[in-house]
Amino acid sequence: MTRERNTQTIYFFIVGVLLAVIFFYFSRRVLTPFFIAFALAYLLDPVTDRLESLKISRTFAVLVLMAGVFSLVTGIGLLIFPLLKLQAEHLVSNLPNYIAIMQEWMHPLLGVVGEPEKIQGILNRELLKIGELPLKVISSITSILWGSVAGLFSFILFLANLVIIPVVMFYLLRDYDLINKKMLSFVPARTREQVLSLIKEIDGVLADFVRGQLMVGLIMAGLYSIGLFFCGTPMSLFIGLLAGLASLVPYLGLVFGFVPAAILTFMQTQDWVLVFGVAGVFAVVQGLEGMIITPRIVGEKIGLHPVAIILAVLLGAEFFGLVGVIVSVPVAAALNVIFTHGLNEYKASSFYTS
What we know:
By secondary structure, the protein is an all-alpha fold. The chain has helices spanning 2-26, 28-52, 58-93, 95-110, 116-139, 141-148, 151-174, 176-185, 189-230, 236-246, 252-269, 272-297, 306-348, 350-353. It has a domain at 28-186.
């Protein structure tokens, strides 16, 4: 009887998870601001608790914290955006020189194929498009945002999300502990302690990884940007930010960072010494990340194989877009903890041992 009840519970759980995934998939556009607000609330809850411990009311602490965070993000954006635009304009102004250099590289190859003039004309047009892309992305954000949404309703929804995110974030942060208690009250009393232990373990993994790895990525982005700037790399700030944040996925930071940085540095300076300097920057930052930054900030690793992380990011991007990319690794980490517990329970069961 007990075994049949446990089997039914497992079936209900699996069906419930599948229905939840289907619901999230078809309502992902509407739920996106709520996911973002929850993620921000989760990241900022420890700071709110620390302010509350100083005998400050939680509502006032949340207001002060949100004002500080949004002011900081706005200030950083106002500081970084002009620098990115300046570097993009510098890249575009030097584009003819880069095209000439690439033509010299490709000239021997064009001689061995038919109709080299036609191929060279196609290459020139494509290189011009690629070179103009950074400036278009940075200087035409408004038009890009408008073009990325489908119709007036989507644009209105986008504007509404800008209001929904801080409002939902405020209420989630203010009632964070109360929401946790109410959610836990739905768990049967006989399994509440076990579920609470599992939730604490998941929270520990997420706290160590998500909050810590995000800080690691920002530190690495800063180090990359500074190092590439001294190497004379065009778009050093953009490449540094991209490489630092892409390092959340194993080896992706090297692909998105080192390769374009090395190519652009050589085309800009024609100096192999500076290219080796770029390689040195990535080697030093990677060494600092592995030996000092990550051990001190993140601590223990997430417990996921790099292939599993890459697969999680790709699946998240495929089903849920940008939000899927952001939440894929934390979700995979939580599922890994649940899977480990389930595997231990399975190995301890009579079905496995008998």
